[in-house]
Amino acid sequence: MDQYQQTMTNSFILLAIALCFGSTFLFIYLSLAGFNPLAAGSGRILVASICSIIFLYASGRRLPNTLELWIYSTIYGGFCLALPFILIPFALKTLPTGEVAIYLASIPLFILLFAKLILKEKVSFKRWIGFFIGVSGLILLIGSGHQSTIRITSDLLSSSFCIIASILLAIGGILIQKMPRCSPFSLTCASLTVASIIVLPIFLLNIPENKPGSISLIGLLAVGIVSTFLGNTLRFILIKRTSAVFTSINGFVAPIIASILGIVLLSEQINFYIFLSYLIIVSGIFIAQDMDKYIFKWILRNKN
After folding, report:
1. What is the DSSP string of 92-134?
2. Is the pLDDT confidence value at 239 over 70?
3. Is the distance from CB of 73 to CB of 133 less than 8 angstroms?
């Protein structure tokens, strides 16, 4: 496969990841009609784990067979899947889907930070400027649109959940990059299996007394299959093909998809401050990831 084909394939996978993750918030919102946040968060992991195991063995693959891979999978499954996926439904109880997605757009900023701290990658002064611009956008987003003390308290708590989830997902991207070479399907399945074991008691303790409606069941199944199983499998594949930094670019597109779905299907509104926050965060990511260099090289290549 030549360089052009590799680039096109990677771009297609990146778009697919953005679609999977961008629809996450709509599906969770729908599932919350019949499940509480703990049941919705843990249920999506259980659904994804079942799908992953079925797909793994149906395709003739097997789970990892080394202790090192299981240690990585356990850390990733516990801290970078189970915990953030439990936190996000709580945030969606008070924040619009588009706003939560914008918080998670900050993942590339945190990946940059942890690439420096964990991978010991060199980070230029320009990239640090981009990082702090992006963080200022997060600060603006946290302070936007609050009108009462009760609303401020609940929104700040939800915002904190979103930022914690973003940090954990960013660490997950770094962990995937550090994992020894192995089938992405095997690693995804192992991580989801560990996460499902952790969240199973939570789900059992939070099963709704009344039978959930069809909409909430569809939402739970969709977020488990599309957003969690398929999205994380593609994320594993792309990080192994490229890097955590490149894969995190899906953070540009996913919030736009989430906002469009929220506006069209849920009649949500995106105010000026939320939109401005997104522009500032994206600008920070653009600078921090040297996207201007990639665009300049692309222009030169197409001119030639």
Report:
1. HTTS-HHHHHHHHTTHHHHHHHHHHHTS-----HHHHHHHHHH
2. yes
3. no
Q: Where are the alpha helices (DSSP H) in the chain?
A: 3-22, 24-31, 37-58, 67-77, 83-92, 97-104, 107-117, 125-142, 149-178, 184-205, 214-222, 231-241, 244-247, 250-266, 272-288, 291-303
Q: Which two tokens stand for residue 71?
A: 């240690």
| Full residue range of the structural domain in which residue 78 is found | 13-303
**Is the pLDDT at 249 greater than 80, yes or no?**
no
Q: What is the pTM of this model?
A: 0.82
pLDDT for position 71:
93
CA dihedral 213, 219, 222, 224 (to 10 degrees): -100
User: What's the sign of the alpha-carbon dihedral 175, 115, 287, 280?
Assistant: positive
Residue 168 lies in a domain: yes
Residues whose CB falls within 8 Å of the CB of residue 91, separated by 6 or more in sequence, listed in order: 100, 103, 158, 159, 161, 162, 165
What mean pLDDT value characterizes the chain?
84
CB atoms within 10 A of CB 32: 20
Domain count along the chain: 1
CA distance 172 to 174: 5
pLDDT confidence tier of residue 150, bands split at 50, 70 and 90: very low
Residues 6 or more apart whose CB falls under 8 angstroms from that of 226 comprise 20, 23, 27
Determine contact, residues 10/238, Cβ cutoff 8 Å. yes
Q: Say which range, 23-27, 256-260, 282-286, has the weakest mean pLDDT.
A: 282-286
Residue 88 sits at the vertex; the CA angle it makes with 86 and 89, to the nearest 5 degrees, is 80
